[in-house]
Amino acid sequence: MAAFERILVTGGAGFVGHHLCVALAEAYPHAGRALLLRPGERGGHEGFEAAAADLVDEAAIDQLIARLRPDLIVHLAGQSSIGQALHASEMTWRVNFHGTFALGAATARHCPAAVFLFVSSASVYGASFRDGVLSEEAPPRPVDAYSRSKVAAESALSDLLAPKGRLVVARPVNHSGPGQRNRSFALASFAAQIAAIETGRAEPRLKVGDLSKARDFLDVRDVVDAYMRLIDKARDLPQPVSTFNVASGTAHRLEALLERLRGRAKAQFAIEVDPALLRPESDIASVACDATRLTEATGWRPRHEIDDMLQALLDDARAAEAQAATATS
Q1: Closest C-alpha to 116, from 146, 67, 154
Q2: Are 45 and 52 in contact (CB under 8 A)?
Q3: Domains and CATH numbers, the chain
């Protein structure tokens, strides 16, 4: 395991960040660990110092990096929902691009030799997915504000951080699993609705968007394993900037995944298409990526089957529903 003395994580209070902070605390128990939180924000791992600063406040971020001088930065923070980004383009650009630029610039000034893991998105390939399963050699052809802001952030970091440090860009496909309770994400929404229907707190109608879309899905635990392996190997990578897909290579139709969840449900329900959940015509029909480069560099392979992920997601949704029912009783 690579040695790091000072670790900074952004977005650590979120879904993926929670899992990653647990893994980092276990892997680097003697390192100083800080978690960037917005002023007034709560959450995060108890083994991390809370560092309050708004990502889009360049002066505050510069002061924070100058104080901490981390040798590992894991940048997860950003507008993570493509659906939400479609209706908030300005904030998406402010957070995903301007916030990332501020963090990268401060890193270049105060700790240029740091390892910087930037969590981008497979969505940057955009229209290129019409050509099939994509490797990292495929050209980014973003189709919305979310993916355009991610491509721009990747480019900015490459210019800011090379050649002194090590920039690792991860492009994960969709991922879900225990702890994802944001209904802006399809599988989390399905699981939460099913759990509410089972308890009788919701009518037996499950609202969905376009179920014909096919997506490459990973369990969040496999995604975190990929990030940890990349962190460990970062300093040994031959190039100052390296990009890796994090993916299974297989696209699953949302309709089929919903049917698998329905098979685990304890109550019957109808399925209703909600026009508000439908994406624009630019949405890509099928998304899948090749992660051969990641496997060759780190030995990573997914360990959780799609059914494992769905069961864990549903179990977590049921636990959350039980807590909600207790709180209102």
Answers
A1: 154
A2: no
A3: 6-175+217-246 (3.40.50.720), 181-215+252-284+305-328 (3.90.25.10)
Query: Does residue 134 or residue 41 have the better pLDDT?
Result: 134
Burial 275-293 (b: 16+ CB within 10 A, else e): eeeeeeeebbebbbbbbee
Q: What is the pLDDT of residues 188-197, one digit of tens each?
A: 999 999 999 9
Bridging pattern class, strands 49-52 and 270-273: unpaired
Q: Cβ-count burial of 230 within 10 angstroms (0-12 exposed, 13-18 middle, 19+ buried)? A: buried
What's the length of the chain? 329
Provide the H-helix boundaries in the chain: 15-27, 58-68, 82-85, 89-93, 100-110, 145-161, 186-199, 220-233, 254-264, 292-298, 306-328
Distance CA 175, CA 226 (A): 12
pLDDT at residue 265, rounded to an integer: 97
* Peptide bond before residue 163 is cis, with ω within 30 degrees of 0: yes
Confirm whether pTM is higher than 0.90: yes
User: What span, in angstroms and rounded, lies between the C-alpha atoms of 132 and 287?
Assistant: 8
pLDDT in tens, 300-312: 999 999 999 999 9
